[in-house]
């Protein structure tokens, strides 16, 4: 039987496809290529170009393949854009997930691993953030992700669909072979933006605020390697195959790095001075977001292999150096 990966042409999805194939899984990908790349999808996966909101397409995918479980990445995920266009987020994220779960019910598929986010928590009361912390999303993006988690809860009760929701913190890095990596247009994430400076694509990195209540005044985040995230999806699948009940897990490295520290590490990895200029704060940025991932470690047996941020940046630099303009398509 096969694993259906929605959004498998995207950044985290394409790395997860490679991880699943390495464990001998059969993989089917559905992706609209809205933000993903056809050439990011391994040739060993079966690919359908299309939108998960298209019920006829999903009928065809579930009809033509014996799908055992779904890993669901397909979503819109820009916080700022979601504030400008909330309805587009309700449409793609919530209605998209409704359409997917509807097809799962119709075709008798009862397992789903879901891409959730630290944005479901909002400004934390304490760090590291545990899964039992209050969820108070501060954007339509975070709100739709939380609503999707709640949709899964009710669908578990009503239809017996088991879910594992994985709340990622800051995904970064690239596959160590350098063939796939991060290519978002526009790019909003810190590490690839920093690396645009040594690539000659921007003059300097703008630091969004240096007056936060942290040691050097810049925001602290928890950076987790994309292959460690990919591996957690496979472990989540094993967890459901073993018959465990639905659950929610944070995925982060458990260590916090300030924007300033990330820039310094990137300077040492790239051997480039990477000039930095302080610019105004970005709306909605909490000062510190660090995950407690002890639940994923103890329950799923997750052991991140890339727990050194310099190594993570090195894998990203390896990809960007070889693909300065991203994927050819
Ligand atoms: P991405 O944009 O690279 O990947 C998303 C993929 O889904 C793209 O290939 C896109 O074309 C596809 N897609 C979007 N809507 C679709 C639809 N309606 N039908 C079919 N395909 C569709 O994003 P990413 O960074 O790989 O993130 C993957 C998931 O992880 C998202 O759900 C995101 O919210 C979540 N997430 C990402 C991060 C991060 O740091 N990148 C952090 C937390 C959570
Ligand atoms: N950031 C920054 N300059 C940039 C991009 C990001 O200072 O050009 C900061 C941002 O304010 C946040 C951290 O880097 O504190 C990580 O941002 P990113 O967008 O990568 O992830 P987020 O934490 O928003 O999910």
TrEMBL record:
SUPFAM superfamilies, A to Z? NAD(P)-binding Rossmann-fold domains
User: GO terms for molecular function, please?
Assistant: UDP-glucose 4-epimerase activity
Domain spans labelled NAD-dependent epimerase/dehydratase: 3-252
Q: Which reaction does it catalyse?
A: UDP-alpha-D-glucose = UDP-alpha-D-galactose
Which InterPro entries has this protein been placed in? Epimerase_deHydtase (IPR001509), NAD(P)-bd_dom_sf (IPR036291), UDP_G4E (IPR005886)
- Recorded metabolic or biological pathway in which this protein acts: Carbohydrate metabolism; galactose metabolism
Show which residues constitute the signal peptide.
none
Cofactors demanded by this protein:
NAD(+)
List UniProt keywords, sorted A-Z.
Carbohydrate metabolism, Galactose metabolism, Isomerase, NAD
Keyword NAD attached? yes
Q: Which domain of life is it from?
A: Bacteria
Complexes and interactors: Homodimer.
Which NCBIfam families does the UniProt entry name for this protein? galE
Q: Which PANTHER family match?
A: UDP-ARABINOSE 4-EPIMERASE 1 (PTHR43725:SF53), UDP-GLUCOSE 4-EPIMERASE (PTHR43725)
Q: Tell me which family the UniProt entry assigns to this protein.
A: Belongs to the NAD(P)-dependent epimerase/dehydratase family.
**What's the protein called, per UniProt?**
UDP-glucose 4-epimerase
Query: Which lineage do the record's taxonomy fields give for this organism?
Result: Bacteria, Bacillati, Bacillota, Bacilli, Bacillales
